[in-house]
Amino acid sequence: MATNIFKVTELGLFQLQILLMLTDRPLHGYELKKAFKELRGHELSSGMLYPTLRKLEARGYIKGEWVKKGKRKKRLYYLTDKGWNELKKLLDIYLLSPLENLWSNFQGFWEALLSDIKISKGDRVLCSAIFPLSLARWLIRRFPESELHVLVEIPAISNMLPGITKILRVMERYLEGAAKYHSSLPNMKFSTIICVLKPPQVSMPLEQLFKRLDENAQVFLVLTKSTDNIWIQYFSNVLSSYNFKVLFSADEILSAASKYSLSGILREEKGLIVAHFWR
Q1: Cα–Cα distance measured from residue 218 to residue 247, given in angstroms and rounded to the nearest whole number
Q2: What is the pLDDT of residues 149-174, one digit of tens each?
Q3: Dihedral Cα 99, 105, 107, 109, nearest 10 deg
């Protein structure tokens, strides 16, 4: 069951959206109205925006400052530490979601499964997982000197508040800048690709991952092979609303790997297909 965000924050949805808009940089009122129009598709009235800004400022979630722009003065609004802490609660809640719980409830199993991964200093790593925050935090602790990129395409995050790019910015700040989040598959090469239960939402997802491997690279896959294993049962009600390929066969994985001159090991464990390929 989804957690109600309004049980852990005193702010309303519109107020949280304003805080999200200020995560990248300070904005004045007109810029906020423009951002909301791009997000919602309709104009935001001054009678709704400015009283809310005053309330947020009075309660310490944002800070306003008059600056001169041309011949006019405009009030720039900044996100304060208190405002950031309120946004951080959204990701604290997300870590309690069914998908992230799939990591926390079986953390020992996942850590043992991923223990063979070796990543060197400065390696560029792509992670696509059903529990993106939890796995990213584990990778950061284990390989702090790698360049970590995390693919996030989970509707539960963007449905919590509109504006996926702003949500991703909050995620990056939540991890103190140790990872870069992407809402679509980045077009760059990687030394290591880790895919756990959630390939990217593209056609031919394995091929799209393999073609992004650099020379002397490795890929680590954990995928589901049937609908009757414990993992699919655990979150099938959540997966039903997602638009990505879930099930794979061993032959399908080996065929795609061969196409990109990858060799390695493929095995089954607890109903999962585990593959570690390299060049």
Answers
A1: 22
A2: 999 875 544 454 445 566 677 777 77
A3: -100
Report the C-alpha gap between 75 and 54 in whole angstroms: 11
Residue 272: per-residue pLDDT = 85
- Class of domain 5-86 (CATH, top level): mainly alpha
Prediction pTM value: 0.77
Q: Which fold has domain 95-278?
A: Rossmann fold (3.40.50)
Q: Tell me the domain boundaries of the chain.
A: 5-86, 95-278
Bridge-based pairing state of the strands 179-182 and 62-69: unpaired
In three-state form (DSSP H/G/I as H, E/B as E, the rest C), the secondary structure along the chain is CCCCHHHCCCCCHHHHHHHHHCCCCCEEHHHHHHHHHHHHCCCCCHHHHHHHHHHHHHCCCEEEEEEEECCEEEEEEEECHHHHHHHHHHHHHHCCCHHHHHHHCCHHHHHHHCCCCCCCCCCEEEEEECCHHHHHHHHHHHCCCCEEEEECCCHHHHHHCCCHHHHHHHHHHHCCCCEEEECCCCCCCEEEEEEEECCCCCCCHHHHHHCCEEEEEEEEEEEECCCCCHHHHHHHHHHCCCCCCCECCHHHHHHHHHHCCCEEEEEEECCEEEEEEEC
Amino acid identity, position 45: S
195-242: pLDDT as tens digits:
998 888 888 999 999 999 999 999 999 988 765 556 555 555 555 555
Pick the range with the lowest mean pLDDT from 27-36, 75-84, 118-127. Answer: 27-36
